[in-house]
Design goal:
This protein has three helices and no strands. It is mainly α. Helix 1 runs antiparallel to helix 2 and helix 1 packs parallel to helix 3.
């Protein structure tokens, strides 16, 4: 695995975790650190600029949508 792909995948993970932690833990400084580090890792990856922008915009939306959907799906 190339270093740029590792940065990209790690950035996606941190961006998604930061988006979900905003709603779960309500610790805003943790949210900010995770989101900013995820955006930074995505920005220094080897991907094209268009893919980077789409990733940064869509990953938080998808992560929050899946989180809320799983809350409704697994509730009694």
């Amino acid at each position: 695995m190339k270093k740029g792909n590792l940065f990209y995948l790690s950035g996606i993970l941190l961006l998604a975790l930061g988006s979900i932690s905003f709603y779960v833990f309500l610790i805003y400084w943790l949210f900010a650190i995770l989101v900013l580090s995820g955006i930074t890792l995505i920005a220094i990856s080897d991907k094209k600029i268009g893919i980077k922008i789409i990733t940064i915009l869509l990953i938080p939306v998808i992560a929050v949508f899946l989180f809320i959907t799983s809350l409704f799906a697994f509730s009694n």
